[in-house]
Specification:
Layout lengths: L6 E6 L4 E6 L14 E7 L4 E8 L4 E11 L1 E7 L5 E7 L2 E8 L2 E9 L6 E5 L2 E7 L5 E7 L4 E6 L10 E4 L5 E6 L5 E7 L2 E9 L6 E5 L2 E7 L7 E7 L3 E8 L4 E6 L5 E10 L2 E10 L5 E8 L6 E3 L5 E5 L9 E4 L7 E4 L10 E4 L2
Parallel strand pairs: 1-27, 2-30
Antiparallel strand pairs: 1-28, 2-3, 3-4, 4-5, 6-7, 7-8, 8-9, 10-11, 11-12, 12-13, 14-15, 15-16, 16-17, 18-19, 19-20, 20-21, 22-23, 23-24, 24-25, 26-27, 28-29
């Protein structure tokens, strides 16, 4: 297996959390590594949602914001006006929080019998994926202009399995989940209409999706009895195609780089029964699979983002599962280690970028 290098920043505090990059904290443009801020969120040891702000010019955590609200955090989004939204849960109920100008608010605290696993911004609308309170998946929308929160669609998959959603170039919202038999499903929500694009994908739930050039890429489970992971593509022309099936340590997240046309996958690797984080790449031109970086932290990486800046951001656990660290790198691999606030007690489970 060949080993590659790409520009990488790996953020790794500990348990349920989220991470997002945006230029100067409130821009709708893609982030750069020379300037801008990286926002991440996690639960602290008291169970409260905490937001961390990392300056990408200095690679240092410059601010720690304790919302004072008890909640696990699985997803994060930053609006153009700088408001930070967190999706997660508390005691089995989905929770949506906001933070702006020093004020933390609970927008909704009783979303189904589930967690809010995914968030996506489109204009004045914040989409949220959770449960519908009846054992099925639910798609919700928060209108940032009039502060209303509504259930758009119920029966969107099973339970709170809408773990990933992404806006396509066509403005439609795409989501990945699974049915009651835990077979993968891909959905499209466009012009107030929910469409099932493909079902029966692999042998497990869709873990993550991304999109490029009218094609969706999804990370799920294969049909092999050993429950290997698999990477799929979907387009209206070709339907579902299996790009790669892999046996080994778990894979959890994927992102596509607009600079290289490579699909990057975050997960783990096992070396002499010891699990650690690893990043892989899949060439969409020749289907070549490579390990990019290995031995990152003490468990499998759980989130990844490859924005237009050429850097890649990855979330997981630190060197020990009870330590939070930020790894910074440019060019040939990782060159620096920065310590994140010790108050975080959960890993970064989701990564997004402001629109």
């Amino acid at each position: 297996m060949n080993k590659q290098h790409l520009n990488i920043l790996i953020l790794a505090p500990l348990l349920t959390s989220a991470l997002i990059a945006c230029s100067n904290g409130n821009s709708t443009s893609a982030p750069t590594t020379s300037a801008g801020q990286l926002y991440s969120a996690a639960s602290n040891t008291q169970g409260e949602a905490v937001i961390y702000v990392t300056n990408l010019a200095s690679n240092k955590v410059v601010n720690t914001i304790n919302t004072g609200i008890v909640a696990s955090v699985y997803s994060l989004a930053v609006a153009p006006n700088g408001t930070i939204y967190l999706g997660g849960g508390n005691r089995g109920r989905g929770v949506l929080l906001s933070y702006s100008a020093g004020v933390s608010k609970v927008i909704e605290s009783s979303v189904g019998n589930s967690q809010i696993r995914s968030l996506a911004l489109s204009g004045d609308t914040l989409y949220a994926g959770g449960g519908d309170g009846k054992g099925n998946g639910g798609l919700y929308a928060y209108n940032m202009s009039n502060n209303t929160f509504n259930l758009l669609e119920s029966n969107v998959g099973y339970g709170d399995t809408l773990k990933s959603m992404v806006l396509g170039n066509d403005g439609a919202l795409y989501m990945g989940g699974c049915d009651k038999d835990y077979n993968g499903i891909l959905y499209e929500y466009n012009n107030s209409k929910l469409t099932t694009l493909a079902s029966g994908i692999g042998g497990g739930c869709i873990k993550a999706i991304t999109s490029s050039n009218n094609t969706l890429y999804a990370l799920g489970m294969g049909r092999d009895p050993q429950q290997l992971d698999a990477i799929y593509s979907y387009s209206s022309k070709s339907g579902v195609q299996t790009l790669k099936e892999l046996i080994g340590a778990p894979l959890n997240a994927l992102a596509i780089s607009s600079n290289t046309g490579m699909l990057y996958v975050a997960g783990g690797m096992t070396n002499q029964s010891t699990l650690s984080g690893a990043i892989y790449s899949l060439s969409l031109s020749n289907n070549q699979w490579n390990m990019v970086e290995s031995n990152l932290g003490s468990s499998a990486l759980v989130s990844i983002l490859a924005p237009q800046s050429g850097a890649t951001y990855v979330g997981g656990s630190g060197v020990t599962k009870k330590s939070g660290q930020v790894y910074g790198g440019q060019g040939n691999g990782l060159t620096g280690i920065l310590t994140s606030p010790e108050s975080s007690s959960t890993p970064f489970y989701a990564i997004g970028i402001s629109n």
